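User: Assemble these into one structure.

Assistant: Restating your components, then the assembled model:
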Amino acid sequence: MSKKQEKDEKGITVKKKDDMPEWYGQVIIKSKLADYSPVRGTMIIRPYGYAIWQKIMDYFNQRLKEKKVDNAYFPMFIPESFFKKEAEHAEGFSPEVAWIQNKDEDSKERLALRPTSETIMYDSYAKWIRSHRDLPLRINQWCNIIRWEVKDVKLFLRSREFLWQEGHCVYETEEECDKETLMFLDEYEALAQNILALPVIKGKKSEKEKFAGAKYTATIESFMPDGKFLQCGTSHNLGQGFAKAFNINYVGKDEKNHLPWQSSWGFSTRLIGAIVMQHSDDKGLVLPPKIAPIQIAVIPILFDKTKEKTINEAEKIRKELDRYEVKVDTREEYSAGWKFNEYEMKGIPLRIEIGPKDIEKKQVVIVRRDTGEKLFIKRANLKDKVKELLDDIHNHLLDKAHEHMKKSIVETDSWEEFMKSVEDRKIVFAPFCGEEKCEDSIKEKTKGANSRCIPFNQKNIKKKCIHCGKEANVYAYFGKCY
Amino acid sequence: MSKKQEKDEKGITVKKKDDMPEWYGQVIIKSKLADYSPVRGTMIIRPYGYAIWQKIMDYFNQRLKEKKVDNAYFPMFIPESFFKKEAEHAEGFSPEVAWIQNKDEDSKERLALRPTSETIMYDSYAKWIRSHRDLPLRINQWCNIIRWEVKDVKLFLRSREFLWQEGHCVYETEEECDKETLMFLDEYEALAQNILALPVIKGKKSEKEKFAGAKYTATIESFMPDGKFLQCGTSHNLGQGFAKAFNINYVGKDEKNHLPWQSSWGFSTRLIGAIVMQHSDDKGLVLPPKIAPIQIAVIPILFDKTKEKTINEAEKIRKELDRYEVKVDTREEYSAGWKFNEYEMKGIPLRIEIGPKDIEKKQVVIVRRDTGEKLFIKRANLKDKVKELLDDIHNHLLDKAHEHMKKSIVETDSWEEFMKSVEDRKIVFAPFCGEEKCEDSIKEKTKGANSRCIPFNQKNIKKKCIHCGKEANVYAYFGKCY
């Protein structure tokens, strides 16, 4: 083994609590989820990372089918004139759009590389939608997105190209649009909590933070161990602005022309960053069982005389657990200890060790990745125990993150406490006027904190805004974010 | 219903044999597989078309898993300097590359939008591969591809953006590379014949037609009803040229440094065009059962008094056929006749009609989309019969296309017959020197025909080349192509 190889195969060299950004990068590189790319601002999703994305896609495609959303694919090029049709949208996205110069000599219109697909999709919607019978229209696409934001990539969290899904729906009524905007947000919450073990806070974005061109934006926000929020998915009620701009209308049951209501909603490969940051530890990655590409690593402990018998037993275990993703590692050029480290680094939820003595005793050794707990399980109980443990790991990861989030919330009416809590990386829950200028000023004074979301269904509180002292009708969550 | 709507809902207005390009466009637009895009040279894959692509992806992802190929995702931006590293590759692709101007002020290198990903991937391969233990490396990606070729899009067949898969493998030995280059070609053949009902001719590409930078290119070619070839998938043995250019090497078991061998292989959404053109007819789309998003349409014949009973029976049928994709159409605003036309246009392989009289007689009516045949089936035999019919439709489509292909082959040593056969849109099988200049001249004289492929395992024929009269060691298939 070369020096270089040895060095790379060592564990994480910093602690999560000491240097989170460095730790985060090392976990991703060393577990081979992703790699830096030679093209500035971009990243490479390696097979292990892509397998997680595939699991997320598979799960969500099932949900889309259930909700009658169809997948499609629209061009990645968007003519400049399309962008300009919806003024707020154009203004909001213009700093981060990448353009290609049209190579056609007879057409000099610049083409944008999609930073989001509202405009290119709604041009077709105007063609396709004629009657109330064509509604609701629900289309999703999985694609790459280009936003020329950063020079220095933050793996999975911020890069000039990323993968996402974007849903785009059209409805007859405002009520229906509102209902489904929140329904898809609920789908995101279910994905985050039930599949990725990420607790989230739900609510509306402020005027300043909403999507460019939306009536309002709803969001799920997860709170990271270092005290920063990470936006995990947004669902926008677009109102009728795009329908007006793109001339989408339909003949209603009353045989008159109407403007429809629209929504769009998306989540991206950023979710993988959230998983890594939330759950992983100083030994490497920790994956929630439902999206782990390998859920169980079976490691036969090999001695010359009992090798065949042990490998056979490991294979039996694989067959018994065939509803899970199981990897049996029989490689002889690596020691059992080396393999333990490897699967810890890769965040495999359960490790099963089986040696000749275990076979004799009719037992297996199971080690949990999340707690490190080592259990001696009767061979006959293996199947039940594995199910129980995987469920338990999911719940434990979710609870731990939830506990941290709950403990971090500081509710206050005092600007001093607000400032101190933001400084301490807390979630600050405070009365807020909701105005853009006020939020700008909060951001400046706190060096980066802003409102993350305004919970739904609040009582009218009649308080003064935490910052400007104007009337505030709502409490909002504030904090720093990725 | 508006005039416009009525017009669009009419059937295909030209016959396949009279005006194939117009017929082809109408089938795609009216069955809603795809649509023209406002961005010149690009197209929109509508939900019905994307569902077919999803079926192809699902099937092929299974095969990739079986063959130990992992999916990943690399950046779509490729630095100009990467392109230039492999000279032939750079030259071959340069006319059709689209560039973006780098927005970073401190970096003026142009970035290409990937026309294929060899260069961006192999830069990382050089980093990742160190030892023989890292080989074989087999990575695939599903992504969008940009080639600035045409102004006028040919739906699914030629557009500036399309979707594909590209596999990129690295091996220790030439032998292994050779073997797997052809193994993946065999996978393509199996996909075409067993899933898409497309018969293909297999072989190597000539020097002129091979992939830019490859040692050789292997191909599967399908022959369309209008007498033109359509390339359906290619697998390239890249030799060691890219490994040299990108400095990929590995330490072998002998502890010395070696250059590895590489292959790449891909197919695209073009396959959907091949399916449409090969199987469809004057009534609209005809889909092979294995990739039909809806395999069976159940249409209950509704009368006021027996409506509930009939719908219940239709639902029972759906449950009974739950291993298939079944759609029960109970809409009352459309007549049964309108629905028959609709599902014919959309190419649904089987239509089941069930009315009160059928229920009484304990039968169902089944209509095959491929032959139009109407069968009265005992209700009790439905499940077996459906399986049999779907298999039969697949075989019938494949056989029909195969028959046409076989009948079109003209084997000749005479230049006169060659010219006449090309003119008659035949597949011409003729001795060929294989030289690029000779092929250029053939293309010119025939107004577009070239060698499509050179079958494997030919006896040494020792003939004169059909065109230039030089020595020819092989027979090749010639014809015009899409």
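Chain B has three domains: 13-279, 294-391, 409-481.
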